[in-house]
Amino acid sequence: MDQNRLFYGDNLEVLKASIQDESVDLVYLDPPFNSARNYNVIFSRDRGGVSADTSAQIQAFEDTWTWTPETERQYGELVNGGLPPAVSDTLVAMRTLLGENDATAYLVNMAPRLAELHRVLKSTGSLYLHCDPTMSHYLKILLDAIFGPKQFRNEIIWHYSGWNKKLKAHYERRHDVILAYSKSDDVVFNSVTNPWLSKEQYLTTRRQKLHVEDDGREYVMSDRGGGTRIKRYIEEAMSYGRPMDDVWTIDKLNNSSAEALGYPTQKPLALLERIIKSSTQPGDVVLDPFCGCGTSVDAAQNLDRKWVGIDVTYIAIDLIEKRLISTHGKEVAGSYVVSGIPHDKAAAYALFKKNPFDFERWAVSMVGAQPNAKQVGDKGIDGVARFPLGGKKAETGRILVSVKGGKNLNPSMVRDLAGTVESQKAEMGIFISLGDPTRGMIDAINHAGTFTHPSNGQVYSKLHMITVPELLSGKRLHLPPTFLPYIQARRQPVAQDALPLWTDE
Fold first, then answer.
1. What is the pLDDT of residue 307?
2. Is 148 left (phi over 0), alpha (psi -120 to 50) or beta?
3. 345-498 adopts what CATH topology?
4. For the chain, domain boundaries
5. Mind listing the pLDDT tens digit for each residue in 146-155?
6. Which residues pair with 248 in a beta bridge?
7. How far apart are CA 427 and CA 429, in angstroms?
8. CB 157 within 8 A of CB 175
9. What is the mean pLDDT of residues 224-242?
């Protein structure tokens, strides 16, 4: 693989069409599952209309834990030749055991994806599947069927701290499960160690006695094997560190964490870096088919690994690119290729027809704004860009973005945007259209007035209009430098002409 790749689309389709056999060294996946719902509801044969979690990725995969006629059709295809016999038999047994419910539907959707991930792994490769205790035992059986029970390596317990409540029926649940499998016995594995915190910790843990030479040098007597012992100076003995076991204590991210992006299922960078170091070498390829906010991509980039990220929601693709720019600078855009994103008007219209909400998110991101996380009560506003106003209080201004993909454009749409900018006390507004604006719309934009920046006196149009073809051609609006969307840790404004253009092979 010459370049890193970021795919917008269904990972099953992408894997089949774009990822070659045995081309990946490490697969990490954290597939969305709505485990925040009541355990009994998930396994109930009657869902009872329980609503889904509001994160973008979970919304996109809501059907993966709902038994529908489409699930029934997919199940039939899979168990009648669509999967290896052992995997098909496992799905049949799961349906018999659990019935037609959310959990079974989830396993039906995961089975072909896990089979594809096994296909793309090199013979020396590993897969790490991140889940919580709700589904870990069922996923382990499914992985046993795909990889073979002998290729199971570890059930890693990711333990994190938190405030424990006094519960009446069970202990506080304070861990996730990471299931590790290898494709063969010839697996790449690098034992990870933690440094000893002190000489006293080393001596106590290893139950070693400290000796001192005449010149003051300290040493211990270590077991050499075969009943013999060898003298090792304390610095040398401690240099290797303390090998990790399968319980990892790494703090979860909270709202005040420096790397937090506000993404509901974001995992800490330290967790992903440990996994990548364990099972790859520099230059190896890391694949994340549910890449979400891109922690695995960021970790791979940090550790000089190549990477492939796939996500079904455009907001995730946009967030990942902004994250890479924030962490590694805008030069990083030349190190990867984005596929599945519109590159001409026809492709943009196809996206609008397929998924209007993702079309809106894509268009909003093209002007450097942050798209809405969900399409509920947006009052005609599809995203917001923020920019510094200056002053002692470090206040920020807002640019409201409205996107229209339909053909029936008219001046009232511009007037609605102007009214919302006024009522929400925002500084400016942007109107993005897939089609060409009418003369009346252009006239409404031209008569909307101006905004004067309080710190430098720069004058900007109150409302701006741009079409999707103009955005795709590289045109940028005359706006103040805006903050990178999503990024909370580094609030550096970026000029509009510094925003990268999406590419597609």
1. 98
2. left
3. Trna Endonuclease; Chain: A, domain 1 (3.40.1350)
4. 4-191+246-339, 193-242, 345-498
5. 999 999 999 9
6. 158
7. 7
8. yes
9. 87
